[in-house]
Each structure stands twice: as structure tokens, then as C-alpha cells.
Specification:
By secondary structure, the protein is α+β, with helices and mostly antiparallel strands. The chain has helices at residues 11-14, 23-36, 78-81, 154-167, 171-185, 229-233, 243-246, 251-255, 261-266, 272-288, 294-300, 304-311, 313-316, 324-327, 334-339, 350-356; strands at residues 45-48, 51-59, 64-68, 73-77, 82-83, 86-87. The chain has 16 helices and six strands.
């Protein structure tokens, strides 16, 4: 009870005149339990205003707490620590700009952006893709679990057919296939789109994860039951259907897509054909993120250079230069070159290997 009420475990201070634990501890214990509901654990790590802190003390009666990190310590209200009455999931960060103009986050000035080229300061954390999380692993840090692996996806096949029709400029049939994916993805009336279904929730019923919470613990089971759909997109909470608004009725819906317009402009897509192929690549991103090698899509469509220059601040800062003669190809593995023979049955000479290798490798 004393620990629950955040009191020092000092027998002298916790004992009454009778020598036993103070009666008030028992009478007030339920009230303290109610006051602590939804609050983070003491000494847990949390995110507050873009910084990592350790929660070193809190007073649930006056509703304040102390946060510390290596740089400084701050005192804040517990209500400021919560978001809509809840603690933000530990080690989870929302990436959006509320009330700020749209930007690609590629400016050279470090003070106005966090960057997207991983080694550039102050970009020191990557975006975690949760769609493959397996909360049923046989150890938290193990790669082995029971969740099925995705080998092939029908949506990938559908988008390949749509791309083929776009290349033939048969946009009517392309839209038919694009709608197969979009009609499935649209939200139904009343559907809660903030629920996170990433497979991590299996941690809760996994015996190897019992009493091992998230945060920065080496054995922490990190998952969230609520995604940041509304906050990340800076839109109000709603359960209205999106199926009709996502359905493509004509080519004009693609050419005038508000979601894709900034990308058309950044890539200087002017013609109908350019915008149709750009839209197809954007659809592949929206549907298949993390499920394939994006390089293959962009190299196949010869759009890798344009997107590198438009959307990666490594290009803006002169970190590497795109070479079409090299970067639209991959190196032929050395093990392959070492293992094959020429027409005489002999191993390839260094000169023969060099001639077979792709340019620049």
C-alpha cells in the first residue's frame, strides 16, 4: 500500500503510535489506485514535446510530476503529460505539422526540419513499420514466432495489371483494377479507423512477455492499440465512410487528386501519362509499403532519379550524386562472377569479370 501511494518505505514514518502501519494507508489506498489509473509508471521513459524523459517523481494529489533527462529537469502538470486523458504509448512518436504549411522536410537548415536522410543530424530515429510485428514470438528479442509471413499479395498482382494498362494508355481498364484495391481499403460507415491491428497485441497473451513493459527496456514489448491516423493526418476524428470518396470514377479523379497534387508538382508531372504513372507508384506506396524493394518500382519506371532529387534531403545537401548509368542497375554478385566459367570451361579472368559487371561496380 505504501508503494502504491508513492511513499518512502521507511517503517518509522509509516507506523502509527500503536507501532503498526498507519490505518490511513488502508483507508486511502483505493483512492490512490483510482488517481493513478492511466498514469505511466514511476521511472518509466516517456516522450514530452519531442524529447525523451524519465519520470522521476509525481504527486497524484496535486497532479504534477518531474521529468528528467541528461540536459535538464522540468516540472509539469500530469494533465499536460496526458493526451486526451491517456498517456501516449511509450517510445511512440507522432510525425506531423499541425497548423503548419505542407513541406517535404528536405530544407538544408537543420533548425527547420528533422531530415529524412538517416545520418544527417538531428535525424536520429527512424520510422518503425509495425505491420509485420509478431507479438507471439518465443522471446521478445527473437526473430522466431508464429505469425504467418507474406509471400505474395493479390493487391500487388492487381496493381501490376493496372500498371500494364497505364503503359498501354488504356486508362479505363487501369481504373477498374485500381478500384479493386481502393474499394477494399475504404472505411465503412461507423468503422473505428484509430484501432491498431499490427499483430503486436499478441504480446499481452504471450507468456514470455509477462510483466515486461515497453519503453526502452532491452526486453520491452512495444506495441500500441491505437494508431495516430487522425493526428498524423491532422484531421478531426470521424467514423464517416470513405468508400465512395476513394472510388475512382474517371481519369479526372486521378489527374486532379488533392492527395497526389503536391507529388505531381514536385516531380513536374504535366502530361496525362506522367500523372497516371505517378499515381500508380503512389498507390503502390500506400498499399505495399515495406513489402517489396521500392528501388525495383522506381528503377523499372525510370523515376528513381526524380524522386531522389525531390524527396530526399541527401540530394539537397549534396550527399552522393545520382548516376543513371550506375544507379538504375545493381551490382552482379562477386560470388556469381567467381563461380561461372568461360566458353573454354576456365574460371573468368579479372578482365572478363570486369566486362560482365554492371557499370560503376
Amino acid at each position: 500500500m505504501a508503494k502504491n501511494q508513492l511513499l518512502a518505505l521507511n517503517v518509522a514514518k509509516l507506523s502509527g503510535q500503536c507501532g503498526n502501519l498507519m490505518c490511513c494507508l488502508k483507508y486511502e489506498d483505493e483512492a490512490y489506485k483510482d488517481l493513478k489509473k492511466g498514469l505511466p509508471k514511476l521511472n518509466s521513459y516517456i516522450e514530452y514535446e519531442g524529447e525523451k524523459f524519465k519520470l522521476t517523481s509525481m504527486n497524484v494529489i496535486v497532479r504534477n510530476c518531474k521529468l528528467e533527462n541528461r540536459e535538464h529537469a522540468i516540472f509539469i502538470s500530469l494533465d499536460d503529460l496526458l493526451k486526451n486523458g491517456k498517456v501516449c504509448p511509450e517510445h511512440t512518436f507522432v510525425r506531423y505539422y499541425a497548423g503548419q504549411p505542407f513541406q517535404w522536410n528536405t530544407a538544408k537548415d537543420n533548425t527547420t526540419h528533422s531530415g529524412n536522410y538517416y545520418t544527417i543530424y538531428p535525424h536520429n530515429r527512424g520510422v518503425a513499420l509495425s505491420k509485420f510485428r509478431d507479438g507471439a514470438r518465443n522471446a521478445i528479442a527473437s526473430q522466431f514466432g508464429t505469425r504467418d509471413a507474406i509471400i505474395a499479395r493479390s493487391a500487388d498482382d492487381v496493381l501490376m495489371v493496372a500498371e500494364a494498362y497505364i503503359r498501354k494508355k488504356d486508362y479505363s481498364n487501369a481504373i477498374t483494377y485500381l478500384n479493386m484495391v481502393r474499394d477494399r481499403a475504404g472505411y465503412a460507415e461507423g468503422e473505428d479507423r484509430s484501432i491498431s491491428r499490427d499483430g503486436g497485441q499478441a504480446y499481452k497473451k504471450n507468456s514470455v512477455c509477462t510483466n515486461k513493459g515497453g519503453g526502452f527496456s532491452a526486453e520491452g514489448a512495444i506495441y500500441t492499440e491505437e494508431n495516430t491516423y487522425f493526428e498524423s493526418n491532422n484531421i478531426p476524428v470521424t467514423t464517416a465512410a470513405t468508400k465512395s470518396s476513394m472510388h475512382l470514377n474517371s481519369v479526372d479523379d486521378i489527374l486532379n487528386s488533392e492527395a497526389d497534387k503536391p507529388i505531381y508538382e514536385a516531380l513536374k508531372c504535366n502530361s496525362e501519362a506522367e500523372k497516371m504513372m505517378c499515381f500508380l507508384l503512389n498507390e503502390r506506396t500506400r498499399e505495399l509499403i515495406g513489402e517489396s524493394q521500392r528501388w525495383e518500382d522506381l528503377a523499372r519506371t525510370k523515376t528513381l532519379e526524380a524522386r531522389w532529387n525531390a524527396f530526399n534531403d541527401g540530394s539537397e545537401r549534396g550527399i552522393g550524386k545520382f548516376d543513371p548509368a550506375k544507379h538504375y542497375y545493381r551490382p552482379i554478385p562477386q560470388s556469381f562472377l567467381d563461380g561461372i566459367t568461360n566458353e573454354n570451361g576456365a574460371s573468368l579472368s579479372n578482365e572478363e569479370k570486369e566486362k560482365m559487371q554492371n557499370p560503376g561496380y
